[in-house]
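testing teh design pipeline on a random one, pls ignore if ur not involved
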């Protein structure tokens, strides 16, 4: 059995990391 909460948490972390990378790339350029 795979808890949906774990999957949702993983997706949230991935989205946060992607947003962070985008924010760092924006001002960097």
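output:
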């Amino acid at each position: 059995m795979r808890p949906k909460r774990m999957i949702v948490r993983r997706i949230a972390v991935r989205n946060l990391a992607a947003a962070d990378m985008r924010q760092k790339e924006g001002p960097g350029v």
